[in-house]
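Q: How would the structure tokens look for this protein?
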Amino acid sequence: MKIATYNVNGINARLPVLLRWLEFTAPDVVCLQELKTPQEKFPADIIAEAGYQGIWHGQKSWNGVAILARNLEIKEVGRGLPGDETDTQSRYLEAMVNNIRIGCLYLPNGNPTPGPKFDYKMQWFERLANRATELLALDEPIILTGDFNVIPTEQDVYRPERWLEDALFLPEVRQAYQNLLQQGWTDAIRKLYPDEKIYTFWDYFRNAYGRDAGLRIDHFLLSPHLVPRLTAAGVDRDVRGWEKSSDHAPVWIELADK
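A: Here is the predicted structure in token form.
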């Protein structure tokens, strides 16, 4: 079973890129972030023609998450991250697919810092940690995946000294990510590639992609049930170089059957 996550940076603007990538790679499940489209403008019919059904949580101009599946049933089990009924941002979607619970998330960026956007990020992170604890207590196969907007370590960024005051790399943000791992989650990419330089995002400015001046901010966290089933993982880096592509590249894992 191949599962991917991809921050598309506007699904309708990047639809040709998304469809091309789906045709080439044919993942079984895809989690998308930053749809930047209201609920009614999601291109469900076009995606269905590509062989995928989906559920989505849209929002006009900003945010938005979706889970797509090919030849598999999707059962939505959660919409919105618990813990704050006043939070209207579309950043979390949870579903059962092929007996695996999948949480698709788009964690807030948090810049500029300090300020209300960073405060919101840390509050959202705390709510995510609470939900992650609840999920582990279910004692079932679970994946949390998406754009975490966290650079976990210096290994995960080109020239880390330039990011010391950024909300993606502040000590409290990195610690919040480590706290998730300490709950019992496993970072799938680092499980298989503990020492390699791996990036998932390259800015549009200063020829970042051409210079390979990237970041690793798109992650797969696996519950203990799934770690023995992890057989492969990677980043479809070349997609970032396609015309009119997102500034993120798709990230994927493969799981063996039980």
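The helical segments are 15-25, 44-49, 116-137, 171-183, 188-192, 208-211.

The chain has six helices and 14 strands.

Upvote if useful.
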